[in-house]
Here is the input.
Amino acid sequence: MRLTWSHKPCHRAHQMVMTRVARSSQRKCEIYAFFITFVWLMMVNTVHSWPCPSDCICLSHTQILCNSGHLTFVPLNELPKTVEHLSLTKNNLTYLPTDAFRGLRSLRKLTLDGNSIQSIDQFAFRGLSRLRELTIQHTPLRALKKLSFSGLQNVTAILLGYNQISVIEEFAFATSANIRLILLNNNPLHIVSAHAFSRLTNVEHLIMPSGIRHLQPDAFYELDSVGLLKLSFMDLSSLKANTFRGLTRVHVLAIQDSDLGVIKTDAFAGLSQVGSLNLLNNKIDSVQKLSVTRQNQVKHFRFNGNHVLDSPRKSTFNVIASEGFTMVSNHFPCDCHLFRFLDGYPFGLNASTDWFIGKNFCISPLELNGQPISVVKQNFIEKCLQSSPAAPLGSTRTLFVVAALYYFHLLVH
Here is the structure.
């Protein structure tokens, strides 16, 4: 008797199982679709469960535009607590009081450009713990008052360009430690007060406007871990002692294209851990003493392209940079003060001054303006070195005139 195997009963059983699985999957899909529809309807109902402010466009419960609406106050009672992006540009807001945005805890981006804001009170933005970006530009705002931007714990960018800011008061940004970018371009900033940026850490870019007239001592005190601090087109009577005291861990500190007046002794005292300290293309009346010591922990020092109106004296420059420094393309008066300075081994006993006289230039006398210092005749230099020590600062102008006349006599004869 031959035994045979039939797969038909097994096949029917398999079909039955698969049919049950398909029906179960279909039911799950139907339930899932119903759930998604229900959630969507709930969201729609939530969005439309509050009236949109009359001067605003509500794109959603998280994004609201109130632009050009002639608002004179922030409509807190009409805004949903869920708003994340709020734009209030081109309104008539003139003043931001303390807790001006109370209750809007979900805000991530706030735009106030083009308003008539003239004053911001202390802790105006308190309670906005999730805010990431704040922009207040093209307004008549005149000052950053004490603690006005305090309490912004997670803001990464504050844009304050094109206002009328003339003063930054002390502790204006206190307790707002995580700001990455502060943009202050195109403001008539005259005074940066002591402690103006205190307690800021991890600022990647601090871009200051042109026209600064006063950097108070300790202006950057407790400003820690900065990527770029750029100071350009300033108009200072002097770079004061301790201006940069308390400024630590800076990748690049650039002071450029400015009238620095007199660089006072200890202007860089208390500055520490700097990747590159650059003084570039400035007009400098005189240098009392430019000291960069081991305590400053500066890697690179660059003093390039500057016009120094009064020649340096012995010990004027005391620079120690762990990875080197450059001093090229500068202009100095080619007078006896300069050659006495160079004769005193200003860059160390093992450093020749040949590179200095070949790569720096005369600003005076007029006949040598723009010429390398190396063109000055040796007999004039020897005469300077044989003469009496440099006169006091009060008689510098007289000595310069005498030296210039003497050198002109040598050129003629």
Q: What stands out?
A: The helical segments are 8-47, 336-343, 354-359, 378-386, 396-412. Residues 122 and 148 are 4 Å apart (CA to CA).
